[in-house]
Amino acid sequence: MLKGLAITPPVVGRISIGRVIERNGKRLPEKDDQFTLTSQVQNRDGWVLHPLDELLRRDGGGKLRSIPVRLLFNDPSLNLRADYTLFDRSTGRPVCVGNGESCRRRGGEEGIETLPCVGPDLCRFAEGECKAYARFNVVIGDGEEDALGSFVLRTTSFNTIRTLAARLQYFSAVSGGRLACMPLELRLRGKSTTMSYRAAIYYVDLVARTGMTLEQAIAEAQVKDAQRKDSGFDQDALDEAARRGFANGAFEELDEDVPAVAEEFYSEAGGAGPVTEAAEDRPARLSDRLQDKVARISSG
Fold it and tell me: Where is this chain compositionally biased, Basic and acidic residues type (predicted)?
């Protein structure tokens, strides 16, 4: 295994909640109120839709707001990897990745350094540009064509990250650790907040598959787990292999993925702008709230 190269789940497509549009000669992120499934191929018009997008959209009546999924791993932290990440605004490459306790930072001659992490609000190095960033890998359907081929959802939404992290922990607990056998569904939810000025913002939730109660989903997970063990499928070994693969590299994103990350989360205008969720989805710093209050008083 090549040292320094993170071995990540095989990806056959992407899940997004938005798109990149061209406006005044610039490619800018734009949020949406539905999922889009794309392949890993781009053309002049953007990402090429995955064949499953049309299939699921047809079954859902036009708008794709739910996707049947299964997970690759029993360990919740292997399915959803979330970090505080500082991106290079010009290239999209991760410069510093931390968890609130320690971080890995690209240095000069020293290469990659391991340093304390105080979080995005107190970090002087990031100067307010660090954000929560997560990758969530799922198998769409029941993995009929490729049981280990996943779709990846990248997100900077606190609502999505917090919701998915909680759901994964809860589903793992109630299923007796059979997370990879649970029949689940990604569902798009909307909500309004004071920070969004009551405009709808969208985030991703993870629930039992449509038409099933939680108890029925757990029962199916028990049956599937028994079937897998009878066939010789070693889920514990798969989790351990993934754990070693992630630990093999300091940063998960490959250089070839950098342009997609830069386009997905940063506009050419230079400002941070996640495609998948509105900027109001992120907690505002105190200085931002004070400036916003002064602006409203002045305009009033």
Answer: 279-300
Residue type, 182: M
* CA 272 to mean position of chain CA atoms: 17
Contact between 33 and 188 under an 8 Å Cβ cutoff? The reply is yes
Q: How far apart are the first and last CA of the chain?
A: 62
Q: How far apart are CA 8 and CA 252, in angstroms?
A: 7
**In 3-state terms, the chain is what percent helix, strand and coil (to 5)?**
30, 35, 35
- What are the residue boundaries of the structural domains of the chain, listed by start? 11-299
**CA Rg value for the chain:** 20
**Residues paired with 230 in a beta bridge:** none
Helix-then-strand count for the chain, H and E: 7, 12
* Token pair for 205: 């939730």
Is 44 within 8 Å of 53 (Cβ atoms)?
no
For residue 274, give both structure tokens.
């996640």
| Residue 188, beta-bridge partner list | 204
Query: Global pTM?
Result: 0.83
Q: What are the structure tokens assigned to 244, written together?
A: 């070693």
pLDDT of the residue at 84: 92
